[in-house]
Amino acid sequence: xxxxxxxxxxxxxxxxxxxxxxxxxxxxxxxxxxxxxxxxxxxxxxxxxxxxxxxxxxxxxxxxxxxxxxxxxxxxxxxxxxxxxxxxxxxxxxxxxxxxxxxxxxxxxxxxxxxxxxxxxxxxxxxxxxxxxxxxxxxxxxxxxxxxxxxxxxxxxxxxxxxxxxxxxxxxxxxxxxxxxxxxxxxxxxxxxxxxxxxxxxxxxxxxxxxxxxxxxxxxxxxxxxxxxxxxxxxxxxxxxxxxxxxxxxxxx
Length: 253
Prior knowledge:
By secondary structure, this protein is an alpha+beta fold. The chain has helices at residues 23-32, 52-55, 60-73, 90-101, 108-112, 118-127, 142-155, 216-219, 223-233; strands at residues 6-16, 81-84, 133-136, 161-167, 185-192, 201-207, 237-242, 245-251. Strands 3-2-4-5-1-6-8-7 form an eight-stranded mixed sheet, with helices on both faces. The longest helix is centred in the N-terminal third of the chain and has 14 residues, at 60-73.
């Protein structure tokens, strides 16, 4: 089974990872291909546009998400936001569960920042912006699910939608379940409906068949990073197998 999928344009984008803070650094990374060295695990952005009182509530994943959200919106307001993360703030959840197992009191702030929409909520509070917000987790296809949700909002009349994705490596004891080399990164795309048939991107999907195998190069990095490389490299197509689907990304320009 195959669908006609969704089509969209990216008006503006921003990305951040430890050691890769500028568009030029991301372009070098994208052109280097799958053989490039893994992204550094340690490091977080300054998020200087947010008040310190709110900023210090966020951990590495939250700060990365906030940094790219601020950079991509560039002061725009009333833009719906779709936040996507496969694992979310799982490190905070592990800390809370460990404290609970040891009979220690739980921090209300830590608990509040462990929920999946914490970063989106913090962004809304800091900007006093009441635009619609959604938080999505859909396993290895979390980015694709976020794009579909964003395109649904565009079809429902939103002029633009901000998509923010953020990921971090899994903490112990969950790191043994990793099915790819998880690396910290975040990026944001400001999406709008495709302006013309020969410009923009499309995402289609079909049920996975017996002949569809996960490419070895894609398994080396998180699926979201593989898609980001496709977006920056200028490649015409990219396929990603996840959740019993083959996700087909295409560039029209």
